[in-house]
Amino acid sequence: MIPLLRTLERRVRLILEDSDQGRWPALKTFLQGVSMAYGLPVVLRSRLYATGLMPCQRLPCKTIVIGNLTAGGTGKTPMTVYMAQLAQRLGYRPAILSRGYKGRAETHGGVVADGRRVLMNADMAGDEPLMMALSLGNIPVLVGRARYKSGMQAIRDFDIDVVICDDAYQHLTLHRDLNLLLLDCAQPFGNGRLLPRGSLREPRGAHRRAHALIMTRCEPGRCCPGASDPRAFAGGRPLFFTRHVPFVSRVVGPNAGQISDIKTLKGLCAYAFSGIARNRDFRRGLIDAGCRIVGHAQFPDHHGYSESDLAQICKSAMNAGAKALITTEKDEVRLARRPLPLDLVVMGIRIDFGADSPVFEAYIAEQLHRTQDWGRGSDRK
Predict the structure, then answer these.
(1) What CATH number was assigned to the domain covering residues 245-350?
(2) Could you report the average pLDDT of every consecutive run of 10 residues in the chain (381 residues)?
(3) Which residues pair with 194 in a beta bridge?
(4) Angle, alpha carbons 253-255-257 (nearest 5°)
(5) What residues does each domain of the chain span?
(6) What is the structure's pLDDT at 372?
(7) Which are the contacts of 275, defined by CB distance < 8 A and separation ≥ 6?
(8) In whole angstroms, what is the distance from residue 94 CA to residue 161 CA?
(9) Per-residue pLDDT at 376
(10) What are phi and psi of 158, to 5 degrees?
(11) Strand-by-strand arrangement of the 292-298 sheet
């Protein structure tokens, strides 16, 4: 059964990437039909909230939402970390609200970190909230599907004045003062089709709800094609360009002192493993850094590593002559600090606004300083 599911998953992925070369027409037709059925209620729901027929809840603090239109991979989590740190530098007391996807606390909610201690593991919190809690340290992180409930708890327990909601662009039940939409520079709207035939969570016109657009992964050679020039669809909204900058977050093992930054990866013979939205981009980044990748075990996003998974990874690495294992921060929190026979290099991602950095920070400072209602992004055409 599992091999069959993996084959189906691979075929769906190839269809989503338009790399199926005309194969499996029946599956493609089926996915298109499901996409149409999925899209109708999504559009209806959005319009009901836009017209006020479905009310949203407003927190008694400034609310910033970070999200995207496509499923995974645009950098929402590092952007959320960046925004929390920026709000703190500007003198505010922020907290992060996350759904806690695949964590046991997702349904009832809870505090992942109180600004002093981390209180949950990955099984309870979900991998991304725990990763943010470990990265930030002194900023509270809460999880739960009901963001309003989590926000009120953050205000009550931690006296915060700004909430930053990770991956909440589609969480229309919560009023937002600032809606930041992340779009991949190379494919802002994926293949232009809705899930599951494409990667869009909602139709591309939903970008009009945003107050500002942030183009991500704008590395050299990944600029938007002419037909998808972001200036053409920004509609006068503030538009910013960013890069994903990889860095060595930490190294676990006896030779940790020999690997200190990205430059020290050059020539390292390593075996990679990852379970993120864009496994291939992770591998490409390692190769660009000069790392000798002798193998790469790829898993679905948010994959929970079993003992057998790790045993197979380690066996493959040893057989390939690897000197180290290398993975992402998001994957590392799911390992629960299990001992490994090789050094483990953990890679992180930072958001870099480059020349846009002072302009973006000034924009956020201005928005946070404003006391009047900022209005809805959807009011702007």
Answers:
(1) 3.40.50
(2) 75 80 90 95 97 96 97 93 98 98 97 98 97 96 98 98 98 97 94 93 96 92 64 94 96 85 94 95 96 96 94 97 97 89 96 96 95 41 35
(3) 200
(4) 110
(5) 2-51, 62-243+353-379, 245-350
(6) 42
(7) 298, 299, 300, 301, 302, 303, 305, 330, 331, 334
(8) 6
(9) 38
(10) -125, 5
(11) 243-252, 343-352, 324-328, 269-274, 292-298
Q: Tell me the C-alpha distance between 223 and 220, whole Å.
A: 7
Q: 38-72: string of b/e by CB count within 10 Å (b at 16+)?
A: bbeebeeebeebeeeeeeeeebebbbbbbbbbbbe
d(CA 42, CA 47): 9
Query: Which H, E and C letters describe the chain, residue by residue?
Result: CHHHHHHHHHHHHHHHCCCCCCCCHHHHHHHHHHHHHHHHHHHHHHHHHHHCCCCCECCCCEEEEEEECECCCCCHHHHHHHHHHHHHHCCCCEEEEECCCCCCCCCCCEEEECCCCECCCHHHHCHHHHHHHHHHCCCCEEECCCHHHHHHHHHHHHCCCEEEEECCCCCCCECCCEEEEEEECCCCCCCCCECCCCCECCCHHHHHHCCEEEEECCCCCCCCCHHHCHHHHCCCCCEEECEEEEEEEEEECCCHHHCCCHHHHCCCEEEEEECCCCHHHHHHHHHHCCCEEEEEEECCCCCCCCHHHHHHHHHHHHHCCCCEEEEEHHHHCCCCCCCCCCEEEEEEEEEECHHHHHHHHHHHHHHHHCCCCCCCHHHCC
Please count the other Cβ atoms lying within 10 Å of the Cβ belonging to residue 34: 14
Give the C-alpha separation, 323 to 98, whole Å.
36
> Under CATH, to which class is 62-243+353-379 assigned?
alpha beta
Buried b (16+ CB within 10 A) or exposed e, 125-158: bbbbbbbbbbbbeebbbbbbbbbbebbbbbbeeb
Q: Which two tokens stand for residue 279?
A: 């496994």
Bridge partner residues of 298 (DSSP) = 274
Strands 110-113 and 141-143, bridge-based pairing: antiparallel
* Domain 62-243+353-379 and domain 245-350 have a common topology: yes
